[in-house]
């Protein structure tokens, strides 16, 4: 198969869909790999490194899209990219379609077969291709929040770890999944006072064991959310419903009860955000203020640390990517966990959460592929 990797064009996105190491694996499986010139610049991988790994270098993205049977990316295709997709072509990338009706329309019109990293599952019910970026984003959320708390950046002027004689900052993490776990790890490491909210009692027990009492765990109710947000210096939104739009857990009204200069970091922004006042921002202009509360809602947080995140992502996506390249759509017929990643196929929505969120009829994935 001809596998193509264009350069990412989203604002301040420095990751790359295929590292040179991943290219070597595809080449070893007998596939032709076409990489756009400069695609790996953000991770320090020049065109020569890709040539040495067995890739052919394309001068333009248009060449990559036109000549490839499968496109491997990081972020969702932008408008000038989705118009280049076509029938009988596979797109393998993050999509986050539920809050993005325009991209969904573009993919449906193209006829492409679109496989979303964020809905591929594993035998434990986890999301193995989302997990590494969730780990990165969770850890970055604390770094970004700590920076935003500085007075010069509009924040309260609180040092999360405090100093002897001064209490540490208070961090509230909403959601105890992968993002929440890694956000809490970073916050605890800085010496902050951390509370994790979740609606799974077994998960709260697990988190209590992991942290050995160094964090507070609390069952998430409206009352608990209000109390923890009102007392927090930094709130991290780490809620995920696979494939679906994130629930709005912190209302605009609640902001009036929060400390002035407190910070909200919405890691769920790719799925529409879990704060009512959230809207996507970029690394170029990451924050804005509502009701005296600083919002950090960058939609591609791991793009800020591309060397770490691109390699972590490629480690996770390579297995299924090779299966798609080796077998085409038959790989999804044979592999149910990969099939769960299918979101769009030949003009039909094949993911239940996306179909429900955007009002489309659902095409059952296995039947759609077989047809």
Automatic annotation (TrEMBL):
Residues 4-137 form the Alanine dehydrogenase/pyridine nucleotide transhydrogenase N-terminal domain. It catalyses: L-alanine + NAD(+) + H2O = pyruvate + NH4(+) + NADH + H(+). GO terms for molecular function: alanine dehydrogenase activity. The keyword Transcription does not apply. It is an enzyme of class 1 (oxidoreductase). Keywords: NAD, Oxidoreductase. It comes from the Bacteria. It holds the Pfam family AlaDh_PNT_C. Its EC number is 1.4.1.1. SUPFAM superfamilies: Formate/glycerate dehydrogenase catalytic domain-like, NAD(P)-binding Rossmann-fold domains. The keyword Transmembrane does not apply. Residues 149-297 form the Alanine dehydrogenase/pyridine nucleotide transhydrogenase NAD(H)-binding domain. InterPro entries: Ala_DH, Ala_DH/PNT_CS2, AlaDH/PNT_N, AlaDH/PNT_NAD(H)-bd, NAD(P)-bd_dom_sf. Belongs to the AlaDH/PNT family. This is Alanine dehydrogenase. The lineage of its organism: Bacteria, Pseudomonadati, Pseudomonadota, Alphaproteobacteria, Hyphomicrobiales. The gene is ald.
